[in-house]
Amino acid sequence: MIQYPAIDPIIFSAGPLAVRWYGLTYVIAFAFAWWLGRRRASVQGSTWKPTDVDDLIFYGALGVILGGRLGWVLFYGIERLADDPLMIFRIWEGGMSFHGGLIGVIVAEILFARRQGRHVVDVLDFLAPLPGIGIFAVRCANFINGELWGKPTQSALGFIVDPSKLFPTQRAEALNMCQRFGIDPCVLHVHASQLYEGVLEGLVVFIIVWVYTMKPRPRLAPAGLFLLCYGIFRFAVEFVRVPDENRGYLLFHWVTMGQILSTPMIVVGLIMMIIAYRRNEPSGNVVLEK
Question: What DSSP line would sit under 181-228, residue for residue?
Answer without folding.
Answer: HT-SS--EEE--HHHHHIIIIIIIHHHHHHHHTTS---TTHHHHHHHH
